[in-house]
Amino acid sequence: MSEVVRLTLVSHGMTEAMAAGRFPADEPLDALGGRQVAELAATRTGVDAGMLCCAPELRAGQTAQALGGPATTEPALADLDCGRWRGKSLQDVDPAGLSIWLTDPTVAPHGGESIATLCDRVRSWLDGVAERGGRHTAVTHPAVIRAAILTALGAAQTSFWRIDIAPASRTTMHFRGAWTLRL
Length: 183
Known about the structure:
Elements (H helix, E strand, L loop, with lengths): L4 E7 L4 H5 L10 H13 L7 E4 L3 H9 L5 E2 L21 H9 L11 H18 L2 E6 L1 H12 L16 E6 L3 E4 L1
Parallel strand pairs: 1-4, 2-3, 2-4
Antiparallel strand pairs: 1-5, 5-6
């Protein structure tokens, strides 16, 4: 029987853009986010020993640093590219484009990345983690964690928006021939 691969996905802490309902840019953690990750770091509950990596955005790096970084920057963990919508509120984007983006995972009306493309990117990264084996902690974004969950469950990409990932939360997955979600 092969070794179980353990992966803990940590969502970065709260940012001003999240609180204001704006599409993310490369913003830092806000004061609440700083407190959230400090609490997470103090308990380290559910943060696995082993390799620590993080998305390239500032908020993920700050979260990883609080967890005891340094962390290896992993481009595959980057947040969903929202193209022209980056930094804008939901009210500031084309309602028809937003509606189709929320219902069809293959489109990217903002000129960035579709949900389907994000899911493919995350699936490829998970395949690499499974091949390397061991224990991993990855600090990333809610969108990336949603894509990982869909992969583990073999769920339809149309379910993407039905998964809520809280700031500074942990999602644990194991791999032994297939990814499983551990709750």
